[in-house]
User: Fold these one by one.
Assistant:
Number 1:
Amino acid sequence: MAVKVSKLKRVEKVTLILFLLPTLYLLSFFVAPVASVLGGLLGFDWHLLNTPFYINLKPIGSPIEIRSFGPRLFIVIKGVNMGVILNSLINSIIVTLVSAVIGTAAALLIGLYDFPGRRLFAVLAALPLLVAPFVNTYVVKLLYGFNLQGNTLSYLLQHLGLKVTIGFTQLGGITLAQILAFYPIVYINVLAALGAIDASLIEQALNLGSRGFKLIRTIILPMIVPGILAGATLVYILSLEDVGAPIVFNYKNVISYQVYEFFQEFTSIGGVGASAALCLIMLLLALIPMAIIRKYLSLKYYARLSRGAPRPFKRLKLGKKGLIVAYLLVLPVLIAAAAPQIGIIVLAFSERWVGALPQGFTLRNFYFIFSKPGVFRGIVNSVTYLAFALPMIAILGFAAAYVVARIRVKGIGLLDLLSTAPLAVPGLVVAFGYFIFFHAIAQGTPLDPLVSPAVVLVLAYAARKMPFTVRSVYTGLLQTPRAMEEAAESLGATKGKVLRSIVLPLVWRSIIAGLLLSSIYVLSEVSVSVTIGALGGDIVDPNHAGPITYVIMRLIQAPSISGGAQPQAVAAAMAAILMALEALVLFVATSRLARRGQMLVSV
Amino acid sequence: MTQVIIRDLRKKLGKNEILKGINLEIRSGEFFAILGPSGSGKTTLLRLIAGFEVPDSGQILFDDKDVTYLRPDERGVAMVFQNWALWPHMTVYENVAYGLKIKKLPKEEIDKKVRWALELLGLEGMENRYPHQLSGGQQQRVALARALVVEPKVLLLDEPLSNLDARLRLKLRGEIRKLQKELGITAIYVTHDQEEALAIADRLALLRNGRIEESGTPEEIYQNPKKLFTAIFIGKTSYAKGVVEEVDGDKAKVRVGENLVESVAHGVNKGEEAIVVFKADMCKLTPKQGRTAIRGRVTVPMYMGAFVEVRMVPLGYKKELTFYIPEQEVPPPGSEITVYLPVKAVHSYPVEEGVIEEEEEE
Ligand SMILES: Nc1ncnc2c1ncn2[C@@H]1O[C@H](COP(=O)(O)OP(=O)(O)O)[C@@H](O)[C@H]1O
Ligand SMILES: [Mg+2]
């Protein structure tokens, strides 16, 4: 017994605080809200979900309709409609599979081979990583959507002499938009996995005469499977929780839209109970694959990847056949996926773009951002929320990373899990949980989102976007030998002193890199922003509480704006600024962590 | 000056018991080496003494004070790490001054002591350099200066020279010992290099699989190893398996193939199998009173300059033995020779599981 006490005495107060801060925060402001989704289920009759609206095993109509009007061929891809739940699941599975294939192929081509134009390929593949919520899908709709005024793709086909109109709509449109936006997440994860392969492994295989497809199939693929799985799982979750594409395509028969709608009227078809039930289903659908490949999403695996190989391999020469595949097969896909990002910039400088082609050049859209009070308010709000969330992320994220990296006590695994879990939980579930939780325990106080969304938004941002900082700091700590700290301790330094004089000076770059990443993901956060953020009034109110993404969404939905600008173009101008910021941050943050030509797995 | 007493120290890491009841008494002002092969638990033991880990059971005493559960900063030890752990964001001066600043000494005193330590280790003029601007040997000296300047009760060194080249290792180990004696600090030095341990220590202990196998002065350990493991591990040795034919006081005659080898006996019994360990660099090709003989057929002879390395198979025996013979003439392969060793350079031990490499057991 005496021994036990003396062992406890060894634990420094500082260490205990470092452990308790993030643990208590995440338990109370992440786990508890998410768990309170269950509270919303009280008295819910699950039979209500047993209707064709939610699950429909006998869909009518064909997913792809082909009709001819005179000489013109119309191909309309609208996907199936098998009810809200199955639609979400089917869509996510298709998006995940297609993204995995495209992302892996692109990564193998760009990461493994050298060929003329490789850099262009790399830039195109990375472009969609600059997230521009809502606007991105809006441009996808202009480019490829089914539109009576025609879309850009069909316009181009017509000029190539093909009398065909191709258009994506409904679930088909969502699927397309998500694939184009999300496949780079697989791409970048696989690229990172490739970067962790040591040169000797590939040289050995080459020596033994393995090359081309055989080399890829027998040597490379087995080593990048974790990267593919990690990327694909993230895509799956992002697809499941994405509410931007359904809103823009105005397609309500998916889970995310249904949950989103709850916040419009505080009732949806089926009431609170149905929304809670859908949240729970979405959560389970997200957590199951996550649980299976948990190892590859852990801090340890991430840190190993971002360290890269001790000796990276030299890229292989791409043969003639490979070149043909690269240019005829891969390049068109990369262009098609990068086009929306480029389209956003075009739209931002256009007077009008509703049909196949944009019209007129203008800077007016940018002017509107600053001159329309309700629009500008979004920027002010976002920056304010960020200013409060960042210090929290810095302290909590550092504490969590330090404890997980350095303290070896049973139960630390819980914090490892807790601090990365927000990546796995769909944002809408978090938003819904926050609403239920705070509205229940703090009704009428500033914590009640109906009273003031601001506090809840800051709390939610800090919890959801902390993992990026935790991962970055954790990686930095693993690269700093523990003996550096022990040397100081043995010279008489207390834990607090060691943290200040040794640890912080050695890992501050990782902290900054992590905070930069967390920042751009706070600024581009959608789920909580457009739900809780909407509770403070619409953007016509110059004092609304919505952040940037909420304003962008409202602009995309708006029919017109006073002063004559196309609201979607103003949204594009905001998105363009956001993307520029993201590009800058990704560049700064990864150039440090990417010493060996290694890309940071940043999503 | 501090005496270190370790009582029945046990430590598990993960599922494995790394230290299985360590007992040691390290005298005040002594240079004590802990010698053992890689993985034997040396670093773990040192980390327990430093306070980076706590034992599962057992006690660590500094003089009469129980420090078992004290935190590292409360113990008054200083540790020199295998990779030196210099802080890359601090200059040499700042690295060395760190421990004194922690103690909140007045500025002038810090300065005086740092200069003293830097001078002691021949680092004058390097004050403003950063660790990456130093050679390996210089970094090692800074690590040492940083530990010494705080005048620790106990100085712990974990293979501090293993990252340096052979020449520098030799030079620095002499310097470390000299400093320790001058300052009168109790030092515990961990190494896997038996020659280094013998050269540097007042006394040493052999660690094997988390247990202390044997301890004593370098002379005792080298000249009269009490355990088979020690006998094989220390010095340049060869060994063979045989059957004891005769035990006479502390001497035993062991049959190895056709040879009957005289040896110093360590608990062997007549009629039983035994391992005979030869100090392979103490042999000659000429007979003399008090020498025992082994005759065998040469397989691989190699000229090594000061001596000849001869591999030979003793007559009637199945394994090769290696001897180092101070001759300039290389015996041709296939020839038969007889090597002679002083009996005190041949020791026999009962066969012990797990000490001899497996391939030789069959
Ligand atoms: N954190 C740990 N968890 C589990 N086993 C460990 C850990 N650290 C060391 N070991 C094991 O303990 C044994 C002794 O390690 P160590 O004390 O470092 O030996 P040495 O310093 O003598 O080489 C080794 O077998 C090693 O694999
Ligand atoms: Mg060691």
Number 2:
Amino acid sequence: MSQSYRLESGGKIDRAKPLSFTFNGKSYGGYQGDTLASALIANGVKLVGRSFKYHRPRGFLSAGSDEPNAVVQLEEGAYTDPNTRATVVELYDGLKAASQNCWPSVNHDVGEINSLFARFLPAGFYYKTFMWPPKLWMWYEERIRHAAGMGVSPMESDPDKYENLYTHCDVLIAGGGPAGLAAALTAGRTGARVIIADEQDQMGGALLSSHDEIDGKPAMVWVEETLAELATMPEVRILPRTTVTGYYDYNWLTALEKVTDHKGPGNGGDSVRQRFWKIRAKQVVLATGAIERPLVFAENDRPGIMMASAVRTYINRYGVLPGKEILVFANNDSGYLTAIDAIKAGARVYVADVRANPQGDLVKQAEALGVKIYRNTAITGTRGRKAVTGAEVMELNEDGTDVVGSHYSIDCDIIAMAGGWNPTVHLFSQSRGKLRWDEAATMFVPKEGVAINPSRSVGCCNGTMNLGAVLAEGLGAGVRAARDAGFGDGSAPEAPTATIVAEEPVRAMWEVPCHGHKKKFHEFQNDSTSADLQLATREGMLSVEHTKRYTTTGMGTDQGKTSNVTGLGIMAAAQNRGIPAVGTTTFRPPYTPQAFGAITGQNRRELFEQNRTTSMQPWHESHGAVFEDVGDWKRPWYFPKPGESMHDAVQRECKATRDGVGIMDASTLGKIDIQGPDSLQLLEMLYTNAWAKLGIGRCRYGVMLNEHGMIFDDGVTTRLGENHFHMTTTTGGAARVMGWLEEWLQTEWPDMQVYCTSVTEQWAVATISGPRARALLSELTDIDLDVDSLPFMGMTEGNVAGVPARVYRISFTGEVAFEINVPQAHGLHLWETLMALGEKYDICPYGTETMHVLRAEKGFIIVGQDTDGTCTPMDVGMDWIVSKKKEDFLGKRSFSRSDNIKGNRKELVGLLTEDPKIVLPEGAHIAAETDPKPAMGKYTKAAGHVTSSYMTPNITGPDGEGRSIALAVLRNGQSRHGETITVPLMDGRMVKALVTEPIFFDKEGERTRG
Amino acid sequence: MLTIKCPWCGDRDLTEFAAGGEGHIARPLEPATQSDAEWGDYIYTRKNTKGIHYERWMHAQGCRRWFNAVRDTVSDEFLAFYKTGEPAPKVEGDGS
Amino acid sequence: MVNTTFDVSKISPLDGMVPPVGGVSLREKSYVGKINLRGNVESGDFGHIVESVLGGFVPTTPNTVVHYGDLTIFWLGPDEWLIHTPEGGQGDLIDRLRAALGDTHSAVTDVSDYFVVIEMRGTDCRDVLARGCSLDFHPRSFVADQCAQSHFSHANVLIHQINDTDFDVQVRWTYAQYLWGFLAEAVENMAA
Ligand SMILES: [Zn+2]
């Protein structure tokens, strides 16, 4: 079979460029300019897939992005793309496609058996049958999905690149048909920045498929001339292969550009495959055309039953005559355009028209060409298993509710449905525009938009179907949109003359009558029939949104582009009310499917998120650090030596720091420079403790509360000068605290004379801790490190390792510790110098895990780990940090709120497990009751939970070796020291632990101050 | 995506801003004298208006200034922008 | 006394980053001195004191840049500016500003290492920026010596248009590698 349906001439294909491709493993030929659909039709292929529910044979319905049936699996391996509409795939050499939703093959499909049980698979079948018992739902769901199977996702990483691109324009035009081009022309002439996007590979829209004339010449001449003029305008951007997919608030629209898809996998060079545009437009012109709708008649889903406009597109654009004997089934004049083009192309053509006595221009033209017309006639059934071979027609009764008389049989291999037009109002509707039902034209048309999304709908998407009027609307909308964006005076040129056909009105017939129970599909992909909609109504579904979900109408990959309005018509009839009363479902983005890859764009792999690292990172990396994510930061977690486990490394680091000297990269701490005469006043409000007596060069720890009285950050602040402070925050809280300060200063205390500047990254910080820290540091600096000169919680400035530095005697480990701050660019130098000179002190680099263990030994909290936004300072045993003298500070008033004083609060405690080798899991709950013989299920209430838990070598158990320690929050914990509590674990074990005060090491703090 | 007009930087995308909730809620000058109910109102109670809403925004990824806006929460249309400390403008349709 | 003399070295997060091949060149502008300056120009002496030190008034039009000698001054907010000095020049200027300002309410903060500056040079800079930043860089909307703080994908940036075609992008130290990677990929995608 070699393109036996291809016409001798005609079409906008390049016959000098033959292409070969395979479908379901079989080779075929086509031409440059074909779509996969047009090439398959040229080769006589009609059966392309199976429907979702009944696995009925399905062919091509349309020639565009509204296609519900011809959904194929494109390409293989990493390049495979499921659910691709064959009607929009531009053919390229070597293309490989396969049917999906069928097994083992499209011709012999096991699931077709569903079709035999169709009467057991009514609307809502899945809901009714598989929802009980709930346990089995997961099992059912998996099987249903397998049987339904909408194509196969690629299992390999996507080899292609994608990008996001932002742009701005004065006028965005969605749609490059006659209306859109006319608008682009007049908007562009004003000098405005114009973008015109169209989903097809070339501009022209419906004109690409028609024989219309403009100014007495073929319409495509006007298209070429318009494009030539637009090409001379530097501010006009023409985007073919670009679908405007989403219309969001404030005229923010998304568009998907398929840059290299048409070249085939791997043929795009280094180019991105798809580009996802994010467009901010001052004005929008919607010129999105219209989509033809099917007629819902008996057995209307056989392969070979297509939209009339699609038949016309295949003939005129692709030079393919889809059938030899074509029966057009129409309720309006547009079907006759197809009849005329088909008979001219050599087909035998019949028209069955549901209208009583159509006599319009087109009808007469068709009749004159030899088209046999059956007036007042309905199709009442079709024949053919894998392709249509004929139809039965009968005469309609007077009001079109039934068929009468005897049936008449017509042999045909194509039935072309002309059921009227649906303006493509999807984008308008997404923009929150309201629709109006035009009863005479039987269509929803735009009524009014919203102020924040200024747009104009023109041409067919506005219900304007006559070409001359379409052009006039486009020209006018273009200049007016430009004017509203600040360009030109809004006066439009006269519209060119165009083909005018006097059309007779459409006859609405949402469901075509027949005798007997035959399936009439209105939604092809999901196999939804008129009977399903009527059943839904009988079962009480009046809301269109309920019916949609119950019958799955409009829920396929085409989102009901063809089915929505016919569905509404049938529902309206079943509910005995008008279509406007039934309403419409909400159109949501995207207009056509878009790949996650395109949305993700460049934000993948190493660009998926920012990895913040300090200037010391090169050393960490080259010394085998294992990293931990802390917010956006990658921090060294521990530094394993060869062969060491994490446990081994952390135990070694913990011991080395207490016994000698450890070093940690603390650069990630948030740092804020505070200057101004009211700085002290600000600190008094932010922190719970008193700051007035803090001397210059002295540091103080503070906790910050929100107005609910709960801890939200902590850190050490140092007085650098009379009115100059250096605040540190937690690593994760840096931005939050900076924002907190600015918020209060700007919105509540604008008269306070304070400026805050983030200096987090200005300073690199190496912290050295341990009994030998002072000796090591003294080798790098002339600063007097004597305890009298630089006591605990003191700060001094001087050179360290030849670099100007601030040295803070702050300790988070409980050892003598120095936080050495140098400008970030010198961070690596400082670290490497400390490591080199620290060698003889057996200096040990440690990561965040060891830091956590050492501070837990000392009972220092980590905000966000030991606290959770419901903890007051008193809850964590820090009554000492709450000033009793200060009249006010943020959060103070909330301490005395009834909820906070009623008692029974969760309070921070220490836990020592009876078995010192058991490390409680963080997050484990503490049982509320202590039953000596507990049964599972008994502990339904928790009295608290473990917040921090570690094994440490620095605290010895009964066996003289290291033991586990934990911090926890426990109801009334502060008065329960000495009690034994029970922690039930996931594995069923009941772990006993002793409640202690939350400090395990050097309770007097002598080591810290040394 | 909302376009928000920072009083200093002009029109910018929503993604540059942090929302600060209802505006014109002053911190009580003497919290200690507040009843639990009054203090609870201050920290918890918000209008959750359907319609005209006076609210705070901060140009987080720009000039870092706080400012106020009037927005119709139904249409998402911004009716006014004004600097912190300036009185709230009266807008049409404000039923409050 | 410390006997060791230290061989002091500096690093940048962009050390060793490979420049992309394409229509826009990327290069780090090394070790620019940077000072964050806060103060009230609407009342009091701050504006004129600063003017006397800098050689000109700080820019008061939002999102603009002025140059005085080898200093470049960026508007960051109604009471906030960023001053770029030649390498190492920030210390002296900070001292002079603080001395001149005395008790006048203000803040002068060294942020030289807080930020890194990437120079973008070439006619396609706007298209590269459009791949991560939603601002409108069309010549009708954005001109030389205009600046803007915004975000480039996930990174906070200060974008400065240098002349008709070229831009500088300033970013926090810890976001510099991420930003460089993003810009480099954009340059290479456009060249393909
Ligand atoms: Zn701003």
